[in-house]
Amino acid sequence: MNRYRWLVIGGALALLPALQAGVAQAQIAAPELIPGTADIVIGNPGFAADPSFAPLNPSVMSWNKGSVFGLGQTKVERDQKSPAQKESYSGSYGGFRWTGDKLAIGLETLNLSSDKNNVDLSFKTTGSAVSGKPADWVSLGAGIDNSEAKSGRTTDTTNRLVFGGTAKIGDVFFAGLGMGRDKLDHKSSVGNFSDDRSVTEYGLGLYTGAGGGGGGGTKWHLEYNVEELDDYTGGNGAKFGGFTRTAGVIELNWNSILLSYKSYSNSAKTGDGKLDGYAIEAGWAPNKGFVVTGRLQTNSEKAGSTVISDSNSMSVNVGYQF
Q1: 22 by DSSP, 3-state: which?
Q2: What is the pTM of this model?
Q3: From CA 287, how far away is CA 322, in angstroms rounded?
């Protein structure tokens, strides 16, 4: 592998921690109907690989109508335009979420690595969250995520702490807000540095999760949300990694048949980088019992009007709801 290729991959992996909570996750205002899945985005801004058992806004967990554990496998293909090269990655993930009347707990983990034996490239993340409902109309929560990205002798470690709240408005409408900090530790053969930045997320959603859905009836989830991540400051004073993400989702569970569509757009805080993508998921998801879903996700990375790369991922998830 030539030196330039290492620089390209290393630069991309340095941004993996920038969105360790997931680009396409739509759980800032209300729960997803998907029991557990993986958001995979290879590109900049918003390089991400994350399960969804512990959501972006941890307080959302309290509104789930059941508990779940599950696992999955994912495959990613990336077509970089300049310099022209194709990359592939494989990974596995799993998690658990328990929801009681007043308290909810979520745990998750994911590992992703290059399929090429001569490429020393890997990413792993773990997350945990807890939330509670002090009243029937409000929930509060806190979440911690830890991630590590490695490329050769370069390692980026990110730790995130987020506090969130969600308000139930009427029977089916929700508003959510989360705030926290990301801390990045970068170590490489050419120098080390550390920095932290603010994380802000907010959204509005509709969620008809009570009754219905799996086992009879219909459940809906519609949501629009925004996530703001400030830039990091590198050892040389350069700003990087910050972006604004906007996302929308529509999900339907009709008699245990699940259909989901999400779209999102990331715009860099510094420079003209942009990443657009969408995810489609379908499967069998009863309120109680075994769950199986499949997910297709595609992303296009641009600098101004120039396409930098296109990537696609496919994930298969299995689990059990109770």
Answers
A1: coil
A2: 0.87
A3: 7
